[in-house]
Amino acid sequence: MIIRKTRLEELDNLMAIYSRARQFMQETGNGNQWINGYPSREVILADIENGYSYVCLDAENEIVATFYFRIGEDPTYARIDDGKWLNDEPYGVVHRLAGSGKVKDVGSYCLQWCFEQIPNIRVDTHYDNVVMQHILKKNGFLTCGIIYVSNGTPRIAFQKIGNKKPVSDI
């Protein structure tokens, strides 16, 4: 599989993947995380335009997953309750990870790719998203506490750290 930045002309493909992901969440007991059409077309378009949207392609060059990835501080992570971050080093952030359902364990592949870019990753998920919690724990992420997204709702915060990489390489 290959991971690369999303192209603007792939926006419709991503919206279909997010629609499928919302349906999957509903079916697996997570009906409260991505509601009211989140993530919206405007959010994903901004991700693409800002260079933070990525796709994972299979051997046939079909998009099988998409996610937001950025190296840098996330204001949502400035406050953490009931715990603490593992470190205060530069980190990458993963948001809006979703798969097409075609490739098993594609989420792990995407997370590993992110970790190869910077071995210090922070991510969060909803209390009801046990599928994502399982993926994160399986990939070595540790629960760090509770953060709050922009609408004020809580999320479980996770972090994974590894061998330090010089900042000049980030």
Would you summarize the structure shown here?
By secondary structure, the protein is an alpha+beta fold. It has helices spanning 11-27, 41-49, 106-117, 130-138; strands at 2-5, 53-57, 63-71, 92-99, 120-125, 142-148, 154-161.
Secondary structure layout:
Elements: E1 2-5, H1 11-27, H2 41-49, E2 53-57, E3 63-71, E4 92-99, H3 106-117, E5 120-125, H4 130-138, E6 142-148, E7 154-161
Parallel strand pairs: 4-5
Antiparallel strand pairs: 1-2, 2-3, 3-4, 5-7, 6-7
Helix % is: 25-40%
**What share of the residues does DSSP label as strand, in percent?**
25-35%
Q: How many alpha or pi helices?
A: 4
In sequence order, what are the helices and strands, one letter per element? EHHEEEHEHEE
Major sheet: 7 strands, mixed
- Tally of DSSP β-strands: 7
Can you give the mean pLDDT?
Answer: 88
What best-fitting shape do the alpha-carbon axes yield?
A: globular
Task: Report strand order across the widest sheet.
Answer: 1-2-3-4-5-7-6
Q: Helices and strands: which structural class? A: alpha+beta
Residue ranges: pLDDT <50 for 5 or more in a row?
164-170
Give the CA-CA distance, first to last residue: 23 Å
Radius of gyration: 15 Å
Verbal overview:
The chain contains 4 helices and 7 strands; from the N terminus they run βααβββαβαββ. The protein has 170 residues and is of the alpha+beta class. A 7-stranded mixed sheet has the order 1-2-3-4-5-7-6. The longest helix is centred in the N-terminal third of the chain and has 17 residues. The two termini are 23 Å apart.
